[in-house]
Amino acid sequence: MPGDVDCAPSVTLPSPASWREAGAVLLVSCYELGHQPFSLASPLAVLQRAGYCPRAVDTAVTPLTPADVEPAHLVAIAVPMHTALRLGVDVAARVRAWNPTARICFYGLYAWLNADYLLSQWADYVIGGEYEEPLLALVQALERGEHGPVPGVSDRQHRAGPALVRTYFAVPAREQLPPPRHYAHLVWNGRAVPAGYTEATRGCHHTCLHCPIVPLYRGRFFAVPRQVVLADIRRQVEQGVRHITFGDPDFLNGPTHSLRICRELHATFPDVTFDFTTRIEHILRHRTLFREFAALGCIFVVSAVEIPSDHVLAKLDKGHTRADIEAALAILDDAGIAMRPSLLPFTPWTTLEDYRDLLDFIETHGLIEHIDPVHLSIRLLVPPGSALLEREDAVEWVGPLDPAHFTYTWQHPDPRMDILQQQVAAVAERATREGWDPYVTFATVRALADQAAGLEPRREPPRRSHRPSPPRLTESWFC
């Protein structure tokens, strides 16, 4: 590709101080939902175009070794989600042990939210928001020997806000990354095919109170140029991918932009299917588009249903109701697109009756096979900077910050709910590890909820044998 750099080692070793030496900049990913990491591929392309030869390691697939770290002047750790951050701190500890002189930068959504703790313990630099250009600017400043503030980069002397300027988007560079066969596969119609990942937009137009995107983007989003998105998809298809996940926080923030991408994707690769994430509100608003999305290859949609309790939904400022969820399910069913709901069943406001009602809702609407077990156990996470903390009633339920676990603590006013959450989490972990039948998992969880309420556990729900299993990815969607 034009602008790509030949990063093959030279016979004559370059100066160790050279920032353009292969591996002088090391990018590390820890967890990206089983996808080939976009958070490595995108900055790799930007750094290579500027003449650097970064190396990349995805520790979800390839163990990080001293040989990876020892040549590095800067180790940049991608932390787009909470799980990635917890793993990233372990990576930082190993980097410090193996190469004490290397600078460490955390970048991504959860880096900026937890900047105070990271800079006090592990990080020399933190970048949030649109991270590619600030990361390049940091490398260039260090190469020049400069120690002053870098726009968009926080350090121990200077704090910067998240980078929210329209950036130059390069086509992600995926050549260094493990091939798609090592990542999540689409399972559908009795076959499994490699699944890829790309992003058509960044940020989000909406401001749900519990969403970690809100403290950074505050309702802003940026469209990635259509040709960049399509070129990224083409590269992945050439590597064997036959399904694409659009990982935008909400794919329908820019519906015209997204629809054009899907039309061109289908025209170029008619056998490639796709999925995307969007809110219930957008399914209702753009209901006329979903039959076309289905014709273009959309086979499922992820939507943050959370819980069908209007009281809890209002507390989260979700912008939808129980009736809206039911209407959205009907729209997708009419189009022949499966919904894979993401859930938030355990909050300070969710009663035991709410949780049992959620399980009844799942059974009534035929969603047992549509929900990954982990979603039945998810507990509200309140990171530093969460918009929930700005609500006047936060003092009624929020506890102290636990910085090392990157969240504010809270306890449910009904002790049964905290116990139930721990029990369900244990079941979900075991069910996923051992590959339980979805109906067995569901019945086990519902029995726990019934027992918590002092009721006789109900029997396993009847199976819908006349319906094919819905499409799914082999890695659960989880933050």
Describe the structure.
This protein is of the alpha/beta class. 35% of the residues lie in helices and 16% in strands. It contains 16 helices and 17 strands. A seven-stranded mixed β-sheet has the order 14-13-12-11-8-7-17. It has a six-stranded mixed β-sheet with strand order 2-1-3-4-5-6, with helices on both faces. Helix 1 (38-49) packs across helix 6 (132-143) and helix 8 (226-238) runs parallel beside helix 9 (255-268).
Calculate the mean pLDDT score and round it.
93
Radius of gyration from the alpha-carbon trace, in angstroms: 23 Å
Coarse morphology = globular
Proportion of residues in helical segments: 25-40%
| Beta-strand content | 15-25%
Structural class: alpha/beta
So how many helices? 16
Order the strands across the largest sheet as they lie in space: 14-13-12-11-8-7-17
How far is the N terminus from the C terminus? 34 Å
Count of individual beta strands: 17
Major pleated sheet: 7 strands, mixed
Low-confidence stretches: 1-6, 8-16
**Chain oligomer state:** single chain
List the helices and strands and how they pair.
Layout lengths: L24 E5 L8 H12 L5 E4 L7 H4 L4 E5 L3 H17 L4 E5 L1 H5 L1 H7 L3 E3 L4 H12 L10 E2 L29 E4 L2 E8 L2 E3 L10 H4 L3 E3 L2 H13 L4 E4 L8 H14 L4 E5 L2 H6 L4 H7 L1 E9 L3 H7 L5 H14 L2 E6 L8 H13 L33 E5 L4 E4 L4 H20 L3 H15 L19 E2 L6
Parallel strand pairs: 1-2, 1-3, 3-4, 4-5, 8-11, 11-12, 12-13, 13-14
Antiparallel strand pairs: 5-6, 7-8, 7-17, 9-10, 15-16
What is the compact description of this entry?
This protein is an alpha/beta fold and 479 residues long. It is 35% helix and 16% strand. It contains 16 helices and 17 strands.
